[in-house]
């Protein structure tokens, strides 16, 4: 049995010049994940489900657990002092940590503290997504917006926690994707999925088909392609949609498949947020041999201009993402 803590230390030894700062940062994420997991497990027993009464910058109704997870991850990052600032789905502006240790931190973090909020009340898997970059501003100074507006290919690390039938932490630092399952009896994440690789072709497609009428023509045609009877190509594919990006991606990562959130008339830029949803999941997908696209461009090549910027999103098995890109290009 290897624990996440041991695994991180082992990886750090491969880089003799490493300061241990990234390891400490990942340790803080691991701690916050356990705290949030404990709370989510109690949903239904204590008063932590339902709306918190406020709205976030995206105009979404904030859930109590959105707020709770946001506070816990923020606090863990600030206490550890390895990041100089954090940006979150639940905060309009980025947060600049003021402590001396934090100001000397080399990294910044962007996060979706609780992904799949609409699933909390019904006991379906939710997640936390994180994305780590090296800061651009000088060490010792206060973090700036520019530190957060970096393209995805510059990510140092990214990952998610899935609070599901078991709780897992899945992350990459650019050397493959590794998954750890929480053993609740000892409160330790144990290595369970080393060097995950995504099948290049799967047979699951995940999309909110309720928005069908508003999809671009290329997506409509791709969906018909997924549903056609072509047994030698394993079609029709299977439709699976949980409504939480982390859970839908996690399933497709293990089994092969594609997750899509295209533009719609009511969401002309798409719904998902580039910096703390699309990019970190794209980094994981690519590290697992998959692909992430906005329909024509590589997600991680997009130069961000805003903290809460949205993007259409197609992520998963490479051949499936390329197929939907082909349909979209033919319908331009
Ligand atoms: P969040 O709960 O962090 O706001 O994210 C919700 C996102 C994503 O997780 C999910 O896949 C998608 O929104 C679902 O949207 P629809 O309900 O429109 O399908
Ligand atoms: Mn939300
Ligand atoms: Mn989300
Ligand atoms: Mn969220």
From TrEMBL:
Pathway: Carbohydrate biosynthesis; Calvin cycle. It is found in: Cytoplasm. Its cofactor is Mg(2+). The keyword Glycoprotein does not apply. It comes from Motilimonas cestriensis. It catalyses: beta-D-fructose 1,6-bisphosphate + H2O = beta-D-fructose 6-phosphate + phosphate. This is Fructose-1,6-bisphosphatase class 1. Residues 2-193 form the Fructose-1-6-bisphosphatase class I N-terminal domain. Substrate binds at residues 115-118, 208, 241, 271.
